[in-house]
Amino acid sequence: MRPSRPLADALAERALVLDGGLSNQLEAQGQDLSDDLWSARLLADDPGQIEAAHTAYARAGAEVLITASYQATFEGFARRGAGPAEAAALLARSVELARRAADAAPREVWVAASVGPYGAHLADGSEYRGAYGLAAGELERFHRPRVEALAAARPDVLALETVPDTDEARALLAATEGCGVPLWLSYTVAGGRTRAGQDLARAFALVAGRDDVVAVGVNCCDPREAAAAARLAVRTTGRPAVVYPNSGERWDPAAHRWTGAVTYAPDGAREWRAAGARLLGGCCRVGPADIAALAAALGSPRP
């Protein structure tokens, strides 16, 4: 169902359930995501699979669906022979596919257009290090065309997500200035700091003076970091927190497999909500069953 009110108004009433990792649901549907474009490849090759993945999360209870544009960039599509017009159309398609799944749900479901970090299009894991050696102006020029294409597709919110450092956060905030779509800013963190090792309170504070920022928080991190980060985000910014961590497993790039124990516990969402989180979900390796359990733990309206 298409929302009848802005996301910020809904967050003022209660916490909302985000979806989980789009990639693991696509893999569960039999899709090969070993390509450098990751899930964004399917925007051109098999968009129905993306819509089906969104639908799986909507049926599980997700009230906000995040688009398949995390790794979708003009540069990445150009390497596949797509010109600027085709790339812009594929970015718009990411919003359309999520909107179709949202509109088919029996309750209000919002669409968040993913704006992933610069490192994502390199497909080398550098979004978990940050500090790319680029000036903020260069990063802003990279992000602005994609932001404009996604904003033109009219999502309900832009998800500036998995941001590894304050340089990129500044660039993303500059690129979204005046775009006409509200946004959230979400860092990837480790040890209570940004992935680049910066003070997290100062990182959150960059949203000061931006009335279009509806939430600030963390994603793609250890679940055990979520509650503390949410408290810090609320205390620093006065905004609701957004929290969607990974399963707790770690990716071994040499062995090309996930290792370690699952520490994501849907019941933990109650602690995140108590810490000030109003957008709660999961990232890598968190699937529809986990989101359904999270929605139940929060007492969210059932689909």
From TrEMBL:
The keyword Membrane is annotated on this UniProt entry: no
GO aspect biological process, one term: methylation
Entry binding sites for Zn(2+): 220, 283-284
Cleaved signal peptide residues: none
Top-rank lineage group of the source organism: Bacteria
Gene3D superfamilies in the cross-refs: Homocysteine-binding-like domain (3.20.20.330)
SUPFAM superfamilies attached to this UniProt entry: Homocysteine S-methyltransferase
Stretches assigned to the Hcy-binding domain: 4-298
EC class of the enzyme, as a word: transferase
Entry EC number(s): 2.1.1.10
Gene Ontology molecular function, alphabetical: methyltransferase activity
Residue spans crossing the bilayer: none
Cofactors (names): Zn(2+)
Keywords: Metal-binding, Methyltransferase, Transferase, Zinc
Protein name: Homocysteine S-methyltransferase
Native organism: Streptomyces zhihengii
